[in-house]
Design brief:
Residues 148-246, 247-350, 449-543, 544-647 form the Fibronectin type-III domain. Helices cover 0% and strands 46% of the residues. The chain has 743 residues and is mainly β. The two termini are 43 Å apart.
């Protein structure tokens, strides 16, 4: 096109008559492609591309130039002449237009991700110019993909974190948008749905993938779905598989406290993600000079007891900076390192703080009675650089002193008489300064570990009957059964004490439902515990949930409550919903228990309205979560309905979504979000109208629920909707939202 120009005061000017802009309506589905149309009289070519939106309609708006920009005074109006879905078709079906004298018009076309063309007539009032209709082509909006991938399969489990998965891909025609790839969602037994990990496979055309995002030593759940950039498709069926042990994650905490001038007392916490059964820890250290880190050295011996969470690192240089590294271990190997940097003390001893000691009998190779003494240094003051132990027969006057222990946190006292008692004392040392502990009375009798632990019967989700080979009943007082789950550490194990049990069997009723429970048994004699048995795993089925996590109740008018809660910390299975009960309180007495009807059968719902109550009356409101097994533990709160008259409600809001109506007609679910900070109101109703019309239609008042359905809508048209909170004669309207039926 040739564009003429004219000169004014030495500058080049272009005369622009108008610009046609095609843009998406608010709250619409995404558009693809570029589209624009321009009408000009004389002037520079101007283009305005369409932006992305969310609708199945298009809004076309004409923006005339300012009068100062050109010498005519006319304004352009729009008229849609025709549209067609097939760009190759020669036929242009007529398209009736609403008031064409507006400078914008809206078009609704019931297509999903299809090419279509528009023929637009721009009419200039009071002008001799009438351009030819302008042609524009684009792509219709995307929608939710229709199909789910089929036959999701575990092809190969490579290691503790990696698995090869395959599936049957969806058909391109079901994507209803540009193919962007697949998303894989994975979680474990101990994780909730909101904690699931999502892996995006962009432009992934192979229906197979090697993933390294799984959790070791766990039951991993997986599903896959396609996405088109705007919407995720329906998920595939869920598969699950158990991964083997892996290397641990990093330890949870590490600290190092100087001991004298050449050692550290190191403490740590076990990893949050052991990824298996811990077998111990390896400790390394490196001297640090400026920014240089010297050769790494391993502490000898390694820690081979996973319950140990402290150690002494000795034989270091005074006044020197060190990097201290700890790695947890499983049978799969060392885990992720965790390190800190600390400096040893300069030369100069001082009096140690008062130490403590722990003791327990142990079994030595020689079979003689022996006691293991563990040093607990005083970390609040000076712990000292090392220690030694002195002991004597109980009632004797003279102590026998052992050699100083320079490298470890324990020592073993051998050659004792198992039929006698001993007095033992630990002394912390820092150069010439010494501080003794309190004297402990010790009985060197060794207890054996129970053997052949097994499960006899799984009774229910929390109870199992177990058995074992008992130890010599003459040396024990009873047994302790310890149990914990994958999400807990064995240090925090639950414990059941069984006294005078010589049968070698017991009922364990502290198991966690819907979990892998670790169980072991040990003997005790009243003075100390013996070594534990081997650990067995008991997998439990679903159980009833624990109590919900929180509950709040807010009065709504004089005869209702708005109830909100949080899901249980221990769902003990897959939640299926909630049951709500209530009782009237009269003094110290409770009336008959009533249940709110209907039940909450969507576990994602965490609020409800409890209506038809008496005014100025105290109630007990009870909420129970439920699984397929039944109702869980109750959680209740007591509140009183209002006695005063109605007041203006606070301004409400609402959310909406498409629903599948049984009759197949377009329907929208409107969910009331009352203003609970002020007065929420007692109930609500909905007003709606066709976009551009003046009169609202109203639904019936909704007295018992927090939602209502708008039915019988025209899928080709746009609506304006608002919600109205009511309290007596007072009403408060929400903001108006524009709604399109676009499932």
């Amino acid at each position: 096109m040739h564009v003429s120009k004219w000169r004014n005061l030495g500058f080049h000017h272009y005369e622009i008559l108008s610009i046609i802009k095609i843009s998406a309506l608010n709250n619409s589905a995404h558009f693809h492609g570029s589209y624009s149309c321009v009408v000009f009289k004389r002037g520079k070519l101007q283009e305005q591309g369409g932006r992305q939106g969310r609708t199945q309609g298009i809004e076309i708006q004409h923006t005339p130039s300012r009068r100062i920009d050109f010498h005519v005074t006319n304004f352009a109006k729009l008229k849609l002449v025709a549209h067609k879905a097939n760009a190759l078709s020669a036929q242009w079906p007529a398209c009736p237009s609403t008031n064409w004298r507006k400078n914008q018009l809206s078009i609704f076309i019931k297509l999903v991700f299809k090419h279509f063309s528009l023929l637009i007539d721009i009419i200039y009032l009071k002008s001799r110019i009438r351009p030819h209709p302008t042609l524009s082509s684009t792509i219709h909006p995307r929608a939710v993909p229709m199909a789910a991938p089929m036959n999701l399969t575990l092809v190969e489990l490579r290691d503790a974190r990696t698995a090869l998965l395959s599936w049957v891909p969806v058909a391109n025609t079901s994507i209803r948008g540009h193919y962007k790839g697949y998303k894989i969602k994975t979680w474990t037994e101990s994780e909730r749905d909101q904690d699931a990990r999502e892996i995006i496979l962009e432009n992934h055309y192979e229906p197979m993938v090697l993933l390294d995002s799984f959790i070791p030593y766990s039951i991993n759940f997986v599903c896959v779905y396609v996405f088109n950039g705007a919407y995720d498709g329906p998920p595939s069926e869920i598969i699950h598989f158990t991964t083997p042990e892996g290397v641990p994650g990093p330890i949870n905490h590490l600290d190092a406290i100087p001991m004298g001038i050449s050692a550290f007392f190191i403490t740590w916490k076990m990893p949050k993600h052991p990824n298996g059964i811990l077998t111990g820890y390896n400790i390394y250290f490196q001297e640090v000079k400026g920014i240089q880190v010297l050769e790494i050295t391993e502490r000898d011996p390694p820690i081979n007891d996973p319950t140990v969470s402290s150690a002494k690192l000795a034989a270091l240089k005074p006044n020197t900076r060190y990097r201290i590294i700890i790695k947890a271990r499983t049978l799969a190997g060392e885990g992720t390192p965790y390190y800190i940097e600390r400096s040893t003390q300069p030369i100069g001893p001082k009096l140690p703080g008062k130490p403590r000691l722990f003791w327990k009998p142990i079994h030595t190779i020689e079979g003689e009675a022996s006691i293991k003494i563990t040093w607990v240094p005083n970390l609040i003051s000076n712990p000292g650089s090392h220690f030694y132990v002195q002991y004597k027969l109980h009632g004797a006057s003279n102590f026998k002193m052992m050699k100083p222990e320079l490298y470890n946190m324990f020592t073993i006292v051998k050659g004792l008489d198992s039929q006698k008692m001993y007095d033992m004392q630990l002394i912390a040392v820092d150069e010439q300064y010494q501080t003794p502990s309190d004297i402990a009375i010790v009985i060197p009798v060794f207890l054996a570990a129970p053997s052949n632990l097994y499960m006899l019967e799984l009774i229910d989700a929390t109870t199992a009957l177990i058995g074992w080979e008992p130890v010599d009943k003459k040396s024990i007082k009873g047994y302790k059964i310890q149990t914990w789950t994958e999400g807990e550490s064995e240090i925090n194990a639950h414990e059941i004490i069984i006294e005078n049990n010589n049968e070698g069997r017991a009922k364990v009723d502290l198991l966690a439902p819907y979990s892998r429970n670790f169980v072991r048994v040990l003997a005790f004699n009243g003075a100390y515990d013996g070594p534990p048995s081997e650990t067995i795993i008991i997998s439990t089925p679903e159980g009833v949930p624990g109590p919900i996590d929180a509950l709040d109740v807010i009065p709504m008018g004089r005869n209702a409550f708005f109830i909100s809660w949080k899901e249980p910390k221990n769902p003990n299975g897959i939640l299926t919903g909630y049951n709500i009960f209530y009782q009237e309180i009269q003094g110290m007495e409770l009336s008959e228990l009533s249940q709110r009807d209907p039940s909450i059968n969507d576990p994602s719902v965490k609020s409800a309205k409890l209506s038809s109550l008496n005014s100025d009356t105290k109630y007990r409101i009870i909420v129970k979560a439920k699984t397929s097994v039944g109702d869980g533990m109750e959680y209740y709160i007591e509140r009183t309905t209002l006695s005063t008259g109605p007041t203006p409600p606070g301004k409400p809001t609402f959310i909406w979504r498409y629903i599948n109506n049984i009759d197949g007609e377009p329907s929208i679910k409107i969910i009331w979000v009352p203003a609970i900070i002020s007065n929420p109101g007692s109930h609500f109703y909905v007003q709606y109208k066709l976009y551009g019309t003046s009169d609202f239609l109203a639904t019936r008042p909704v007295l018992y629920y927090l939602f209502t359905d708008l039915k019988g809508l025209d899928a080709r048209k746009r609506y304006e909707v608002q919600i109205v909170s009511v309290d007596g004669e007072y009403e408060t309207h929400s903001d108006i939202q524009q709604i399109f039926y676009n499932p």
